[in-house]
Amino acid sequence: MKCLEILTMKSTSIGRVSLDVRLGCLDPNLSENSEPQKIIEAAKYALRNVAILELKFPFWRYFPTPLWTRYVENMDYFIKICTKHIDAAMERLKLKTVIDENDLSLVERILANEPNQKTAYILALDLILVGIDTISMAVCSILYQLATRPEQQEKLYQELKRIIPNPNTPLNTKLLDQMEYLKAFVKEVFRYQFTTCRIIGNGRTLQQDAVIQGYRIPKGVQVVFPTLITGSMEEFVNQPEEFIPERWMKKSDGYKIHPFASLPYGYGARMCLGRRFADLEIQVLLAKLIRSYKLEYHHEPLEYKVTFMYAPDGELRFKVIKRDE
Ligand code: HEM
């Protein structure tokens, strides 16, 4: 399994949410020039290069650098795709007799309540841009951690076997709510510094002068809350260098964790808009996969690399073994 295959799965579900369309990313014969493949590549390109344009010296402000030119072409492509699908959703909405809002898809609800179509385009663009690469990177990392931690994978399997004795049982929120170890494992993957995926920090521009830890910081300065660091600080987390999912469970055996030490989805008014969607997708995928299959990894350890997230670099060459029960 490659990260790219996980990317295609995520693209299909995000397309359904943000553009109201099945993008067809799961077609095994996608050609390089197909729309789904181009969307995947464009989303990756946008997210992985934005930091270079934002944080390095902005030559692009003075002349169109190659990166800037390609970035703009990329965004133009996205706008074209989003416009096409949102326009189609608008046409479908015109023909629908709406009795209950629950009959509408997310995009249709926005269009029904938002007279300005531009808002729907922007929302769809935002969701598809940030929704694809984030979840796939997280899933790659979580699966790699499970495959290389057999004891903990077994614990997760035992939990899943208890909650869903019949692996074909459709999942629902009541069942997912009981999966305490699964959620704890995911949270620990987000927290753990050395081999896990996550956002490096959350940035904010100060709206007014502030004093933080004795430092006077003027209005307008950008500050970053470095969640990558705080999640590994002894004063906030016991034994931070150990990978212990149990620290997140109700019966946490005395492990402490400061509620702000690890904020994978940020915090406050600008926290991640897709967090519930991301959590749900990750939980469903893990529950379905680990209930029925065992993952093993018998190759050189993968290195973690910073793109815009911290995630494993290379092929996930798992041995996937079907479980008997
Ligand atoms: C594991 C997956 C994901 C992680 C770790 C993640 C993480 C984050 C973080 C750290 C932020 C900044 C929050 C802050 O500054 O306080 C953010 C913002 C955002 N995320 Fe996510 N995200 C994920 C998946 C998604 C998905 C699937 C979507 C869309 C469907 C999404 C949509 C957004 C949007 C729209 C924002 C900007 C919110 C705003 O500025 O008001 N994210 N995300």
TrEMBL record:
It comes from the Eukaryota. Heme binds at C272. Keywords: Heme, Iron, Metal-binding, Monooxygenase, Oxidoreductase. Pfam families: p450. Its cofactor is heme. GO terms for molecular function: heme binding; iron ion binding; monooxygenase activity; oxidoreductase activity, acting on paired donors, with incorporation or reduction of molecular oxygen. The keyword DNA damage does not apply. Belongs to the cytochrome P450 family. This is Cytochrome P450 301a1, mitochondrial. It comes from Asbolus verrucosus (Desert ironclad beetle).
